[in-house]
Amino acid sequence: MAKQKKTAITPTRVENYPEWYQQVVRAADLAENSDVRGCMVIKPWGYALWENIRNGLDKMFKETGHVNAYFPLFIPKSYLEKEAEHVDGFAKECAVVTHHRLEAGPDGGLVPAGELEEPLIVRPTSETIIGATYAKWVESYRDLPILVNQWANVVRWEMRTRMFLRTAEFLWQEGHTAHETEAEAWEETRKMLEVYKTFAEEYMAMPVLTGEKTAGERFPGAVSTLCIEAMMQDRKALQAGTSHFLGQNFAKASGIQYSSREGTKEYAWTTSWGVSTRLIGGMIMTHADDDGMIMPPRLAPSHVVILPIIRNEEEREPVLTYCKEIAVKLRTKRFHERDVEVVLDDRDINTGEKGWNWVKKGIPVKVEIGPRDIANNSVFMARRDTNEKAGIDKEAFVDGVVDLLEDIQQTLLKRALDYRAEFTKEIDSYDEFVNFFTPENKERPEAHGGFSMSHWCDGEACEAKINDELSVTIRCIPFNRAESGEGACICCGKPSRGRVVFAKSY
Amino acid sequence: MAKQKKTAITPTRVENYPEWYQQVVRAADLAENSDVRGCMVIKPWGYALWENIRNGLDKMFKETGHVNAYFPLFIPKSYLEKEAEHVDGFAKECAVVTHHRLEAGPDGGLVPAGELEEPLIVRPTSETIIGATYAKWVESYRDLPILVNQWANVVRWEMRTRMFLRTAEFLWQEGHTAHETEAEAWEETRKMLEVYKTFAEEYMAMPVLTGEKTAGERFPGAVSTLCIEAMMQDRKALQAGTSHFLGQNFAKASGIQYSSREGTKEYAWTTSWGVSTRLIGGMIMTHADDDGMIMPPRLAPSHVVILPIIRNEEEREPVLTYCKEIAVKLRTKRFHERDVEVVLDDRDINTGEKGWNWVKKGIPVKVEIGPRDIANNSVFMARRDTNEKAGIDKEAFVDGVVDLLEDIQQTLLKRALDYRAEFTKEIDSYDEFVNFFTPENKERPEAHGGFSMSHWCDGEACEAKINDELSVTIRCIPFNRAESGEGACICCGKPSRGRVVFAKSY
Predict the structure, then answer these.
(1) Measured between CB atoms, which of A96, A155, A169 is closest to B112?
(2) Are residues B157 and B270 in the same domain?
(3) Does some domain include residue B386?
(4) A398 and A435, same structural domain?
(5) pLDDT at residue A1 in the model
(6) pLDDT under 50 in chain A at which residues?
(7) Any CB–CB contact under 8 A between B148 and chain A?
(8) Residue B395 shares a structural domain with residue B489
(9) What does the pLDDT read at residue B441?
(10) What angle do CA A412, A13, A383 make, to 5 degrees?
(11) How far does Cα A466 stand from its chain's mean position?
(12) Shortest Cα distance, chain A CAs vs residue B192, angstroms
């Protein structure tokens, strides 16, 4: 057996994937659990990543004609009850506000007082409260479309939580649009899914499949839910974003009516679409390795860290001067919509420890500079994605930094595409299907599982059976399903109109 | 009596100031009340203003060394109880979450279920939950200072609400810092007040006084509260931002302890500081007039609106082409950290109505363009602040737009400074003081009230008496109080160390 390389994260991905994930979040200083059940603290390095995600998406939303607004945190219980499937979907896990003050109780401690006439729900999503508002905004077809997005926090009282992937409170954006026609609403639903796909691939370097959810996996109250699905490094699928065609369901529930061009009263057609801080979980599980996080440069909070190597006080001033000069030059460069962001880490701690710190945080490029580098007019550079290290001429490094960052971005995307290709199989026999999803039977569990592109009869019974037996679900029905040809359902053998994506999932 | 000019807002400021305010918010399309008690919907034009406020402040926070993070929405009741004054201050008006699901009740409707062991409070402010987190982050003096800001929503169950000025839910930022020494924490407290003052004056064109609150007006749990206070157009004061020196109160309550350079265990010194969507209320009441909102250009969601004047279909294409060409040229210009933002409003509605629309929204510059303007190679321009209108050469307009916007910004600031100067009086007799604050006695209530710079003995009894009799409070004790010289308390005649600022307030 080859000597094990020492890694910064214990356990490694192969040893214990879920625990590796928690340790990466911790080691990269992205977030931590709070004392409030299921709620996390997003730490500065994690929040800076979220700010970059928000800025990138917000730009794309605005370019596609959307504006931002802000709606109330609280939803009256009666609003939630207006759409039957919707309330069924969210009533089981919601934070309920019942009182509006605390006062001294019999034991001296404070107890809830001032009971509300109607309980308020902390929004798990805002279709109902926004629908009630749109009902007031819309009178005529001239008031349509409404293309509004909201950046907000939402709460879903999940029983099992995991930082970024599933938390009681999370940050997200929710787009809510209202249209004159069914066709326009469908176009919007598809357009925003495409925005998500572009963002996931071009900014996050996370390839995604797109398609439609089965009826059982739909958003409560939607006519159709479209989704982007990514493959994580444990070969499980992560639903990373959804775009819902809501038909007239919520328009009817909220009374969003307009007078048409013909003078009749019609219900509007609405959509909603959202992505959340879960994207950060997806980035970690797509790119991070056994040494910690790897940030795709287009979203990295900082691009380059400069570490001065100072062995004695005499060296301090010349080394720091040289470092600062390089930092200033780097910061004049533009990389993908932002200035190149540079950290000069001159903290007075052990250089090795400092270096590992930044490796674990996933900064794309690390540069060490000591007296020898100054003598050679060079820098010692390491890229996080490939771990390549090299002494390189200072000017060449500065001039090439933008290309370097872009190369790292593309390398990460290619690696993720290759990984997904390696673990995506067309499977036609149920035995093979079972084997694919049952790592216990295999000697190498780390090279097992993934996306099975298999035929399905469109029957809910087969979907349920596979879920019960293997905890495998249909992640999406690809838009181009027909191109895969007809076949026989992997479960019951009945005719299938084409393959769908089966996987275990988060 | 002179013929009354027709105004876009009814009533006018003089006729009914509070109602005028509500009508401006509505006419400018900034916000509306929701069906959820005390919660508003911030509409796209209002939210874009908030985004610009956020971006401007965020830049200043980062320039002064702060980073953003995000902490839980919910605060366990026991956390709030840790600081005695703090809980007293917030227990009377807080949203209490007591249950985590809804289930079918006896009548078929849904009722709260899954009672929590400990109620959770929707954060009214986050000192306690952030303090608990810092207690984990801090071990040694090397971990200090912590300089973190959070952009978030908060909830205070106010009984009487008014859009932007006082709402149950509002958006804000709250900075929370922890320091090694008392002196550093004091420096931070003052520095952030200075940031607020600079922002208010340079971005919002809203002059503010700075000073310290009296003991009775302090933030619950603070050792000292510093504030910025602005004068509104009804001569009332608006507290627009606060910066709190918290001493070791919250560090002790939360257990934020560090090992000092000498090896002893010490409590950290903390500060907190915040501004909120209330700033928008302040901007409205500083700048808006009887025709609606007036946006200071540095924060305006858009700078220029172009209104094509099209009388028939033949004119449409040439007019729109000319308009677009100007829009493109304007957008290449930079004004104060942003590209010049231009709206080309080609909606098919009455031009007069469209024009009033933008006047009410407060866009700084309005440009009308018809066939005659094309023939003259000119535009017809109106500035919102002075209502000046002029036909002007097209190139000259484009080339001068940045100077024009800056002139509007400075004109608004000067106007507000003049207004405040006009209604700030040094008053030394109680009769005059009473008269100053009692408009019923005067023929011209609109030229009455303001800031009374008067002597005070530092006694709580005098402060309370003035508040009870006149609803007038001490807005702040100016930092340079001593410069106003010694005198006799306006209320009791005892010695005073200098003048303080008395006013009615929001």
Answers:
(1) A96
(2) yes
(3) yes
(4) no
(5) 41
(6) 1-2
(7) yes
(8) no
(9) 56
(10) 35
(11) 27
(12) 19
